[in-house]
Amino acid sequence: MKFTTTITSLIVVLVASMLSVAAPIDHTKRDVWDPTIISPNASTVWTIGGTFNVTWQTDDAPVNISNGAAIFLRTDAGMLQPVLAQGFDLRSGSQEVTVPANFTPATNYRVVLFGDSGNWSPEFAITA
Ligand SMILES: *[C@@H]1O[C@H](CO)[C@@H](O)[C@H](O)[C@H]1NC(C)=O
Ligand SMILES: *[C@@H]1O[C@H](CO)[C@@H](O)[C@H](O)[C@H]1NC(C)=O
Ligand SMILES: *[C@@H]1O[C@H](CO)[C@@H](O)[C@H](O)[C@H]1NC(C)=O
Asked: Taking Cα atoms as reference points, which of 128, 127, 113, 123 lies closest to residue 32?
């Protein structure tokens, strides 16, 4: 009986230490900012291979922006590679991007502006 009790308490200690190793990361320091995209918008038309400015509001920018900046295009099918811009200053409110020459004209493109993979522009057209 003594033996069983010792084994049981050893297991309890082992499980407890495993749980503490797997303790959750502190998320409270994250301050991902989703700037409101001004352009492109529903009335914007870009052209394949052309260079355009993505613009967004900066008046509500937080003091510290911890999330990295990046711009992608997406359609209903998902995010498109390659990244069009990254590492720029989110406080600038504007970033030039070039539409890759191998993209297909369509009316359902959206710009994704990181901070956040869910921060999308409205659908807009890219023509030949
Ligand atoms: C929509 O985007 C165009 C540029 O594509 C810009 O000139 C226009 O001001 C934007 N419209 C609004 C309401 O912000
Ligand atoms: C993007 O905006 C910058 C700053 O306003 C401007 O100098 C540049 O010509 C613009 N680029 C395009 C492609 O319109
Ligand atoms: C911004 O970051 C600095 C340096 O990490 C920190 O001292 C300051 O408290 C932060 N401010 C806010 C509003 O989070």
From this structure: 113
